[in-house]
Queue: 2 jobs
Job 1
Amino acid sequence: MFRLYNTASRKKDEFVAQDPARVTMYCCGPTVYNFAHIGNLRTYIFEDLLARTLRKRYNLVHVMNVTDVGHLVSDADDGEDKMELGAAREGKSAWDIAKFYEQKFWQDYDALHCSRPTIVSRATEHIEPMIALVKTLEEKGYTYRTSDGIYYDTSKFPRYGALVGSAHLAGLQEGARVEMSGEKRNPTDFALWKFSPRDKKRQMEWDSPWGVGFPGWHIECSAMAMKYLGNTLDIHCGGIDHVMIHHTNEIAQSEAATGQKYVNYWVHGEFLILRSGKMSKSGGTFVTLDVLREKGYEPLAYRYLCLGAHYRTQLEFSYESMDSASKSLKNLRTLVRQIAEACARTPQNTSRVQEWQAQFTAAMEDDLNAPKALALTWEAVRSTQLSAAEKWAFLQTAEDILSLDLLQVVSQPEQPELPAEVQDLLAQRAAARQAKDWKKSDELRDAIARAGYLVKDTPHGQETEKK
Ligand code: AMP
Ligand code: ZN
């Protein structure tokens, strides 16, 4: 039985697909105005675990959007558009900012072995279906006009806020009331279409039946999710911060427009936090994957760290925990290498192995219990009951989900330990190459040569040779 914790029902529910031949999942993607931080990336790792686990049983259609317009500084329609802010900050166009940070995002996403979605949808390429959805809501009487846009009247949708529950909703209304702008009818009302300001030319704007402007962030996800996946999705994911406003508003828009249930299973990942509190871009507590690389950690060590905590628990980030994740991953790979050598990489699929594999799958299908699946993997590789060939068979199943380069590293010859200084230079060079800073990359190559090593760039990354 596949069970998932459903934010809507507040319990673990058995997952029943509408059509097992086409399970539909929508994940809120990045807002591409800055680098993704490792908190954001934790959410994509959890969604990847879900996608990989679902794909074992079903044919999955996984859609992820890229928010390249319309996400305002406050989730509740106030402040500037994050894209235009990014453009002002860097002196580039909003379009260039979007392109640059989206590309950077996919590099991090791939480096963490998150499997690519079936469909990636950029907001700026879907303005038409967004306008069409707002029109439907207008025709059905859910909208009103203010001086700065077309708004959704939440008082017209009786189930508004059901996802968060009534106690939380009261808090949300109170918070919104404090910030409520003069023309809103209800504190929780939100913008569907915003007009371009009269005194300032926006870089990203479109014509619409209501005037030149841009879509609200919430309508983007509703329109793109339903365009690709139909009116009712099996699963919708995101970080826990989206429950209160973004997903609550998506439900209100979509269900008012279609008269059908929007999502059967709402699945939310908890936050990565710092000891000092929230990971924030403004507070200078903004850790990216490149920062981890510069400090000498491989991206998969971060994946390992995330796998060790259940997606519904907060994970406190520290460099001590990164060190220990890094060490554990290396130790696990060493054991796997010994197993590979002992059985000449020939798996033996016995009933005993199948039992272990079934336990592994059962852990993942019990609301994605990755810590248990990882613990089982350690138990299997250390087991005195299983033969090397049986362990090798088990590892094929485990690696399909864990994706920690457990099997690939085996084919590479064991490298003698490099001096710490060289390791550090190599990590810096990898980061420079990621950032396409070829000048810095060449300087670092020379520094590595001065330390006595030649570095070669191969499809698997940098390889070194003693001079
Ligand atoms: P954004 O790019 O800000 O739209 O966020 C992308 C994803 O990261 C969303 O699903 C957010 O809910 C999620 N997210 C934001 N901050 C964190 C955090 N500290 N830990 C985990 N997920 C986060
Ligand atoms: Zn979204």
Job 2
Amino acid sequence: MMQGIIGKRVTMSDLNKKAFDPINVTRSSMPSFEEYCEEIRELWQTRWLTNSGVKHRQLQSELESFLGVSHVELFTNGHMALELLIQAMGLTGEVITTPFTFASTTTAIVRNGLTPVFCDIDPNTYTIDASRIESLITERTSAIIPVHVYGNICDVERIDRIAKKHGLAVIYDAAHTFGEAYKGRGVGSFGDASMFSFHATKVFNTIEGGCVCFSDDRLCEILPALRNFGIKAKDEAEYCGANAKMNEFCAAMGLCNLRHVDEEIEKRKAVVEYYNERLGGIKGIRLNPVQPDVKSNYAYYPVVFDEKVFGAGRDAVLEALAEHGIMARKYFYPLTSAFPAFNGKYDTSLTPVALDVSSRVLTLPLYADMTRSDVDRICAVITGINGEVTA
Ligand code: T4K
């Protein structure tokens, strides 16, 4: 059920009045206040607020069915899920990954004492260019950690073949792909394991939260221990773990949001289709079509500008939108390999496609209850820049 209004198109003169509320890059999906209160009511009786409580266990089991995977383990956020998963899998040496991602992917690798080896991305999907992986494998390589970016799924079949041939583990950063499927199979079931983020800004949120999906039963023992200080039984830490447990209030938010997530994705789809209608014909703007065989979750709306053809570059568009209260974001600029945290250790020119896309991409606002007039307002600024002002 779209709440969107089929509004009249917004003109540049309307925009100049600046009489609009800000539009952020996204807005959290939430259940009704009453639904959430009902979900947390029993916590006032049980006083069991964290440490694998009832809500935690219920969400874990509902997610296993929803995602179509053998095992789910919940964490306090997606980042800790990934970091502890890497630890649990005992990776060593070098890990092949991409720099076109959020800080989390690369820092999870580095904080495990591993060396990220950056592979370039595919110019159409922005995910790892699987044809380049084999040339980066050395005797120190233990794994591939690709990222499903914006809801675009990596070339999972080719990555699987390469990993099998070279005896490498595969962990997907699937932070952006909750609820997606490839050829009818849940995206979390590819590779050895996948991490989903349930951050407030994601398609499905638990306020803060995340999970790991996997099929290897051996991980069922170590992952819960690692998120609980490394303690397996009582009192003694068997592993060097962390505190990364999901609390009951977050799990309760997840139980509520899970009831509505299919409907939320449908609403996102309608927003994306309307954006595509408005921006589709404009020269110099590359949209992000849904890939063949993919059931998309419409997580983000990235557009890539060709300055020479469009007449303005990404930064100029970002500025113009901001002047009208529209907060688009440069996900992902700069590349993680250029982060000051890594002291110039990595050469960004070795991933030229990633470097180029990152200098030209802009993520436009997208959330389930965005209206058509919100989209009109955003597109009017963009078309206004290149002279295609609506009448
Ligand atoms: N891997 C990848 C590929 C990722 O993209 C991420 C996270 C991770 C791993 C790690 O997963 P987590 O550990 O986060 O579970 C945001 C998110 O914090 C982050 O989760 C996300 N990726 C990243 C792409 O975006 P910021 O710094 O851009 O968020 P912020 O605070 O500027 O929020 C953006 C907009 O969202 C705000 O303008 C308004 C809206 N918003 C924000 C919050 C916090 C809401 O509507 N409600 C909220 O509660 O990082």
